[in-house]
Amino acid sequence: MKRSVAMNSALRLVSLSIIATVGAARATTVVMPAAGSATAGSATAGSAAARLASVAPAAQARAEVDTLIREAAQAEKADGCEAAYVKYKQAGEKVSPLLDKSRAAEIQGIVTNKLDKLEACYRGCQPNDHQKELLVTAKGAAESEPRRAAQITRKLLVGRSVDRCTFWSDARTFLRTLPNVADEMDQDRVDPCELSADLTKAIEGAHDAVKKERTEVGELNYDRSKLPLKMNDLAELYRNMDATRMLLLELREGLIDCESQHKPLAHDAQTLRESVTLAQDMMTSTYQSQIAAVTRRIRAAESRLAEKDDLLTAQIGEQERLKKSLDGLSSINEELYNDLFALSQAESVSFSVTVEGRKVDQPIEEVRALVASEKRVLETLTAKYPEYFKDGVNIEGLKRKKLVLEKLAQMMKRYGSKGDSRLGYSRALAEMNSTVEMMDKAIGSKGEVKPTTAAAELNGGASHESNGAMPWFLGGGATLAVAGLTFLRMRSAR
């Protein structure tokens, strides 16, 4: 109140001095001599013009000083000490051009008094370099990081006089431009623990979710033997816990300044962290056990495959050995068949003639006609087997020879039962059969062939015995020779 009264009195003094100065100037300009010489008149006119030229800038300077002092007084009245200090300082710098030295001294005294009075307040409003940098940083982060900018500005404004200081007033104006800050400032929402209904519901929901998920994790962990069948449930529970974790993170960030809410949320976060760790351990152990079981099955399968591979290798080796043996037996069989074929041709009558150096087989009709004729049968047999017809017909020898030929025929038929297409096989078999038929006919007509003399009879009897033994020996020997040759070949093949 005293300050405003002093200011008003100073303003009145300044106004009165300005009015007095302007009135004196006007009186000086109007009062002039009524008569005089031309020279005196011109001198008076020149001095008046110079006086007017010097009065005009002084009047303008006085007006600017008056304006600055008036604005400074208004700013001081509004408790804007920093603005008032700046205005008074500017007014003091403009006092020197004034013509009225007494008035200038008076104004200079007023300005000096005001500057001394407002200097402490002015200095208190000035920020340091670090505070200026922080405000620049906040303004730079206003677009991308509004929450960071608001946090920096709020902390800068703590304990600052935003009404008296220009810098801090600008900082508050910038703070109000950030999202949601103006509403909070206008509604005086300064209590960090003041919760809305939706926020309270979200906190309660997060707390209930943590308790429920902890219970479910404990139930799944109670009997881990059944866990492989419940892996889908465990995975779904893990996803739910992750969503709850993100909700708790957001709630804790928003209520970090409210200890009464932040501490329970931190406890819920710790409980949830333990549940997540337990779920991860269950998943890991279950997957490891499943992988171990699969590994054991794979190794068992590999072992079985290795055994089967060894067995197959052994079987293949045995098959190769048997194949070689069979190939050897087949070659022996082939050689035996060749020997039988050659023996059958050698032991049977050959029904073929030589025409111009070429061997030509007789037709079957001629062979049948030959077999039907007893005379030609005896002639053919005598020519083929003379040992049996030296002195009559050796019946026993023919019988044994016939038996040999029949066995050869059976063996040939056995070898030929697989459809052998060897050239001459059918002919050789037919000749052997025809030879057997001729022997039957010769044996049947044995009573008609008799020796001519008693000596011949005796000789015939002896020769009969000797001839009968020899052909039998020859026929049996041939068979034994074939069998022995086959046996020797088989041994050599082994």
Question: Could you explain how this protein is built, in words?
Answer:
The protein has 494 residues and is mainly α. It folds into four domains: 2-29 and 46-125; 129-186, no CATH class; 197-307, Methane Monooxygenase Hydroxylase, Chain G, domain 1, CATH 1.20.58; 348-493, no CATH class. It contains 16 helices and two strands. It has helices at residues 2-30, 38-77, 81-93, 101-125, 129-140, 146-157, 166-176, 181-186, 197-222, 231-254, 259-347, 364-372, 374-384, 395-415, 425-444, 454-493, and strands at 352-355, 358-361. Strands 1-2 form a two-stranded antiparallel sheet. Helix 5 packs antiparallel against helix 6, helix 6 (146-157) runs antiparallel to helix 7 (166-176) and helix 10 packs antiparallel against helix 11 (259-347). The radius of gyration is 73 Å and the shape is rod-shaped.
Task: Give a short summary of the structure.
The chain is mainly alpha-helical and 494 residues long.
Key traits:
single chain, 494 residues, mainly alpha, Methane Monooxygenase Hydroxylase, Chain G, domain 1, 4 domains, two-stranded antiparallel sheet
